[in-house]
Amino acid sequence: MNERNSSEIPSGLRVWFVIHFFADVMVGIPLLFVPGLFLPLLGWDVVDPVSSRLVGAALMGIGIESLLGRNAGVEAFRGMLNLKVIWAVSAVIGISLAFFHGAPVSAWGILAIFVVFGGVWVYYRMKLRKNPGRGE
Q1: Which residues contact 80 (CB under 8 A, 6 or more apart)?
Q2: CA–CA distance from 52 to each of 29, 57, 78, 105, 134 (Å)?
Q3: CA-to-CA distance for 73 and 24, rounded, in angstroms?
Q4: Cβ contacts of 113 within 8 Å, gap of 6 or more
Q5: Residues 14, 19: Cα–Cα separation, whole Å
Q6: CA distance 82 to 72
Q7: How far apart are CA 112 and CA 93, in angstroms?
Q8: Segment 69-88 mean pLDDT
Q9: Among 47, 77, 90, 130, which residue's CB has the most CB atoms within a 10 Å radius?
Q10: How many angstroms separate the CA atoms of 86 and 49, rounded?
Q11: CB 63 within 8 A of CB 21
Q12: CA atoms of 116 and 98, how far apart (whole Å)
């Protein structure tokens, strides 16, 4: 990574990547390994262990990449932010639709978390939108 490339990344974005790592891993581990114990604590009466574990695996993958990629250059950050924006927006849509099918009250908190992270990712992706001389 060259100095110019590294300096284009706001330090706040690197901090958010570390925060995202901890948030994803804290939720991803119990979803991956003990969804039948974890989800009832959040109000889920019916637990699909395959879907729960897939979400846990996705959280682990995205969260761990947040930690591993926190010192990358601008091009890597753009790619990671694209993924995070798509994931957050898709999750907001999916959770919102779930309210029509009896999602538990705790889903509002999960929705709020995805809205906050989604807002952060969109904000920083817009900041990295233009890179002089790169033609993006």
Answers
A1: 17, 65, 66, 69, 72
A2: 11, 9, 28, 18, 41
A3: 22
A4: 23
A5: 9
A6: 15
A7: 12
A8: 94
A9: 77
A10: 24
A11: yes
A12: 19
Per DSSP, 42 falls in state G
> What separation in angstroms does the CA of 15 have from each of 11, 69, 70, 71, 78?
6, 12, 8, 10, 16
Rounded to whole angstroms, the Cα distance separating 132 from 136 reads 9
Distance CA 19, CA 63 (A): 9
If pLDDT is split at 50, 70 and 90, which confidence band does 133 have? Answer: very low
Tokens of 83: 């993924």
The Cα–Cα gap between 94 and 55 comes to: 12
Q: Which two tokens stand for residue 47?
A: 């637990």
Q: What does the block give as tokens for 24?
A: 């994803």
Query: How much is the average pLDDT of 90-112?
Result: 95
Helices within 1-136 (DSSP H only): 3-7, 11-33, 35-38, 49-68, 74-98, 107-127
Confidence (pLDDT) at 136: 41
Give the HSE-up count for residue 115: Cα atoms under 13 Å, Cβ half-sphere: 9
